């Protein structure tokens, strides 16, 4: 099924994001996780495409299992990093052969341990070029990334918005945002999208705070702000990881409940492959009763 059809038929599309285990780790663990995630009845699950390269071979394999073994619709992430045009074409042929229908088309993060990576080395420098490639040759449902506070590399928010518009016009069916911790920023972002005539569905990316230090690190890297009330929680539970986890789950649940009450198109949860915490978030947000 194409995910865009879910947006057309459903009130709020609930999706999870997972990452493949390292190449030398057994796949059983992730399949065990999928057994559990199935109980939470997500509308689809997306599988990341590793920036480091060593888990990349597993993305398509896991997406295929999701769809055919666990009966959960899946979406493959695909990036331009370190790929020639032919390699991208080979991957698209494989994705099609496996019967998968949905691709999140991205430029990609720098490979791990190469923070100053030169993106001009890639055949495709930006996601919109990958999207053009896919759109011209295939009929996949295409998603792309959006940044409610602007992409960290963009000099001006208006530049980023213009690039996003260009990307959407290249053939995007729906957008998924990077995480944010203040819903007001997301609602403002929706207004900005409308002002430049971006009208496709937008799923709100939610990153639960499972570990304060890790979130600070990721937020700093991604240029995502942390509101004062979350900073206070992080400070309060600095020495108590269990309490931080509880507070992080509650914070994400409150964010999600508010988004649903405001009728957003979709909620995309960056699960960090954690079943218990994801279940607790959905339960506290009241989603398990609504969607299960
Ligand atoms: P682009 O859309 O190409 O944008 C990148 C930068 O280039 C932006 O600053 C943009 O403003 C600018 N730009 C765009 N077009 C032009 C142009 N024509 N001229 C000049 N500048 C331009 N990374 C991974 O490696 N693997 C994953 O699985 C993965 N999953 C993700 C899932 C989600 C939901 C999100 C939000 C991000 C994910 N990422 C992943 C991270 C993503 O790859 C990075 O944020 C990356 O830095 C940008 O990717 P993009 O597709 O948004 O790039």
- Return the domain count: 1
Q: What portion of the residues fall into strands of 2 or more residues?
A: 5-15%
Low-confidence stretches: none
**How many helices?**
12
The main β sheet shows up as: 8 strands, parallel, barrel
- Average pLDDT figure: 95
CATH top level is Alpha Beta
Please report the distance between the alpha carbons of the first and last residues: 19 Å
CATH fold description: TIM Barrel
What is the topological layout?
Blueprint: H1 3-9, E1 13-18, H2 28-39, E2 44-47, H3 56-68, E3 74-79, H4 85-97, E4 102-106, H5 127-137, E5 141-146, H6 157-169, E6 174-179, H7 183-195, E7 202-206, H8 212-222, H9 228-236, H10 241-261, E8 266-270, H11 275-285, H12 287-291
Parallel strand pairs: 1-2, 1-8, 2-3, 3-4, 4-5, 5-6, 6-7, 7-8
Helix pairs in contact: 10-11
The protein binds flavin-adenine dinucleotide.
Overview of this structure, please?
- The protein has helices at residues 3-9, 28-39, 56-68, 85-97, 127-137, 157-169, 183-195, 212-222, 228-236, 241-261, 275-285, 287-291; strands at residues 13-18, 44-47, 74-79, 102-106, 141-146, 174-179, 202-206, 266-270.
- The two termini are 19 Å apart.
- It has a single domain, classed as TIM Barrel, CATH 3.20.20.220.
- It has an 8-stranded parallel β-barrel with strand order 1-2-3-4-5-6-7-8, surrounded by 5 helices.
- It is 48% helix and 15% strand.
- It has 12 helices and 8 strands.
- It has 292 residues and is of the alpha/beta class.
- Flavin-adenine dinucleotide binds at residues 48-49, 51, 77, 79, 104, 106-109, 126-128, 145, 151, 153-154, 159-160, 163, 167, 176, 178, 205.
């Amino acid at each position: 099924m194409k995910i865009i059809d879910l947006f057309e038929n459903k009130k709020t599309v609930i999706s999870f994001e997972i990452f493949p285990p390292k190449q030398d780790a057994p796949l059983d663990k992730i399949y065990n996780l999928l057994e559990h995630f199935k109980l939470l009845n997500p509308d689809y699950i997306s599988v990341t495409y590793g920036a480091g390269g060593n888990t990349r071979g597993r993305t398509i394999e896991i997406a295929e299992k999701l769809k055919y073994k666990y009966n959960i619709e899946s979406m493959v992430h695909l990036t331009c990093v370190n790929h020639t045009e032919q390699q991208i074409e080979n991957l698209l042929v494989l994705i099609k052969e496996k019967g998968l229908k949905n691709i999140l088309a991205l430029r990609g993060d720098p490979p791990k341990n190469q923070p100053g990576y030169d993106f001009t080395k890639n055949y495709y420098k930006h996601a919109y070029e990958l999207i053009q490639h896919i759109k011209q040759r295939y009929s996949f449902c295409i998603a792309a990334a959006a940044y409610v506070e602007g992409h960290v590399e963009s000099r001006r928010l208006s530049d980023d918005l213009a690039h996003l518009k260009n990307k959407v016009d290249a053939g995007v069916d729906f957008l998924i945002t990077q995480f944010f911790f203040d819903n007001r920023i997301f609602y403002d972002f929706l207004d900005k999208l409308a002002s430049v005539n971006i009208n496709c569905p937008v799923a709100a990316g939610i990153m639960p705070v499972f570990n304060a230090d890790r979130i600070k690190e990721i937020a700093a890297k991604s240029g995502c702000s942390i509101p004062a009330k979350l900073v206070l929680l992080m400070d309060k539970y600095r020495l108590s990881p269990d309490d931080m986890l509880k507070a992080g789950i509650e914070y994400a649940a409150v964010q999600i409940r508010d988004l649903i009450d405001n009728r957003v198109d979709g909620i995309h949860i960056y699960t960090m492959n954690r079943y218990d915490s994801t279940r607790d978030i959905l339960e506290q947000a009241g989603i398990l009763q609504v969607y299960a």
